[in-house]
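thread: overnight batch results

M.L. [08:02]
morning all. the overnight job finished for the chain we discussed friday. pasting input first so we're all looking at the same thing
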Amino acid sequence: MWPLYAAGFTTAFGAHSIAANLGAHSAGAVTSVLVLGGLLALYDGAEVLLKPVFGTLADRVGARPVLLGGLLAFAAASAVYAVAGSPGWLWAARLGQGAAASAFSPSASALVARLNPAAKHGRAFGGYGFCKSLGYTLGPLLGGVLVWAGGLRLLFAVAAVLGAAVAGWAALSVPVVPPLPKERQTVLDLARRLADPAFLTPTAALAAATAALSVGVGFLPVSGRAAGLGTVTTGAAVSVLAACAAVVQPRAGRALDERRLTARTGLAAGLALTAAGLACATLPGLTGILACATLTGTGAGLITPLGFAALAAVTPAERLGQTMGAAELGREVGDAGGPLLVATVASAATLDYGFGALGVVVGVGAVVAACRRPVARGCEPQGRGRPENPEG
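M.L. [08:03]
and the structure it wrote out:
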């Protein structure tokens, strides 16, 4: 499992370490805010468009080759700018990184599900989410150190080495998991499956958690500056947000596997905590910022492993790649939509109203998740009682 966890770390580190350092340390490549926005959107746009495509491909040819191909492509795309170093190649490298992450991220999620019995999905996805959270937390910090030491090209070179190393590790350690035979699926069949509440509820919860995390990372420093707090203090508050999400995920997954927590209860509780955290952002000073970071991070930490485990429980094994790709797309929508909602409301009123608006949306989601009746077929999924490969 560790190579898959390392793949999760790689996609998170690659996204945040470079994004956090593009504006200030791009050696003249970023000439305006518009150019910076374009470079950031290029990576995310590739993920939005391609994750469902590569998820479906993983079901067709096997998740392992898509995982390995994506990691190698990530290494190659990173090496492009590390070697060339010109502004034009920076655009090509970011596009290539985003496309590559679209391949190995849903493939890794699908393999986490297939290589573990249903009774251990909570632990497995908790560990995977923990490693991704580490990447999100450490990426900006380590990226800043690398850029300080050798410039943006050094950061891309390290990303290239990381991608190649994880690809080699996965090639040696991840067992072959052949694609499973499946019945022909029409577009209408796919639409019905994706419209099923068993898919929509966990995916919407994952999108809400990602939206709240993105808003916290982007807007809590703004609230801190408005309250007269320094950059070190606001940076520490954002670190608390990521740390809470990282610490809670393995524990939430373990509680699910040990039947001390159900996916329905956990998702509702996570959404409620997240909504409460967003509401706390409207409180004045450091108290409100820390309360928001703690509650939002804890809520997101509850939602993430339980959401993916719930999706794996109701998805036929032969369609896991497609489902994980679609769920990742939902997270990307939340990642972009949350900050957009907060910014739109804040521009018309104040930032407090922006936090409150997103809090209301997430709170409604908590009520819906709590009231939705459990799906019987998600309790004991057929054909998912043991891993595909016990050696994995």
